[in-house]
Design goal:
The chain has two domains: 7-221, Transferase(Phosphotransferase) domain 1 (Transferase(Phosphotransferase), domain 1, Orthogonal Bundle); 223-293, Recoverin, domain 1. The protein is 46% helix and 12% strand. The protein has helices at 28-32, 43-62, 116-119, 134-150, 156-171, 177-181, 191-198, 209-221, 224-234, 241-250, 255-268, 277-288, and strands at 7-12, 17-21, 26-27, 65-66, 75-79, 85-89, 96-97, 102-103, 132-133, 238-239, 275-276.
Length: 293
């Protein structure tokens, strides 16, 4: 998988066993918080990173490998030319091969060792350290995507506050929609409900890594022109849940994602049955989700 840091070779010294991997340029956190001299990433670059990370985690899970430590410091970027880069998932020091659907708590005799730093990380799932499985990686992936898109409009301290709020909401079983919804206009179409799902308190409520990958891919390729053209086809001045659902279906977005988007849109606009199309488009493309026209 090209979205995972490539292994080169290994050697053994008198005291250590050394693993050599491909050279990367910077970790994701430094790129997000301005420590990288290239400045802020473009929306196109953020979309690429998001999809690459989803593919990496999905690939691991297909091989029944649980990473257990997905976060912006364990994602490395490789510079490709002067204005683009690609993301690689790295640091598999805590990774385990899953022989059963879930792992036992870390203090249980025979359980897979787990660092205190991983358990206490803002990016770790609430259940990590108890009984946990693949959904724990999905949560960490969702938190990392939250950081990728939050950093588009926020400084480092504000970004940390956003991540802390999302983690607190997940741990207290409250909705993460408000934290996801505050990300601003850079978030791609349809990604609000996708991230909210990934950050669900209950592990069983989170999508699989493969489903998350597919939904992020749909969100990344949808354009403003597509959405506006579909609205012109299906409605005039007023928008109903049925019409919105039809538009989303036409975009090729998964059914469960469409239902969530409809519910979220009408709830955020405070409408019980209908809404003005212009108001909806303003929410989506100025305060919600968009890709460049």
């Amino acid at each position: 998988c090209s979205d995972i840091v490539r292994y080169a070779f290994a050697c053994e010294t008198a005291t250590d066993y050394v693993l050599i991997f491909e050279a990367c340029d910077v970790d994701l956190w430094d790129a997000l918080t301005g420590a990288w001299s290239r400045g802020k990433a473009s929306s196109m670059e953020r979309r690429a990173w998001s999809l690459q990370l989803c593919r990496a985690v999905s690939h691991c899970h297909r091989l029944r490998v649980l990473h257990r430590d997905v976060n912006p410091w364990n994602v490395l970027l490789v510079l490709e030319g002067s204005d683009s880069s690609s993301a690689r998932l790295g640091d598999f020091g805590l990774a385990v091969q899953m022989d059963s659907p879930e792992l036992r708590g870390w203090e249980t005799p025979g359980a897979a060792p787990l660092d205190d730093s991983a358990i206490g990380s803002l990016y770790s799932a609430p259940e990590l350290g108890d009984a946990y499985g693949f959904p724990a990686d999905v949560f960490s992936l969702g938190m990392t995507l939250l950081a990728i898109w939050g950093s588009a409009d926020l400084g480092e301290e504000e970004l940390i506050t956003l991540v802390e709020g999302a983690k607190q909401a997940a741990c207290s079983a409250s909705s993460s929609s408000s934290h996801v919804g505050s990300l601003g206009k850079g978030l791609p179409w349809g990604l609000h409900p996708v991230l909210a799902d990934a950050l669900a308190h209950q592990a069983a409520a989170r999508p699989s890594a493969a489903t998350l990958r597919d939904r992020v891919e749909v969100a990344s390729r949808t354009t403003l022109q597509q959405v506006k053209a579909l609205f012109k086809t299906h409605c005039h001045q007023q928008l109903t849940p049925v019409v919105l659902g039809t538009v989303l279906d036409s975009l090729g977005s998964p059914k469960e994602s469409n239902e969530e988007m409809v519910a979220l849109a009408f709830r955020m606009l405070g409408s019980s049955g209908r809404m003005d199309v212009d108001s909806f488009l303003k929410w989506v493309f100025q305060e919600g989700s968009s890709v460049p026209a």
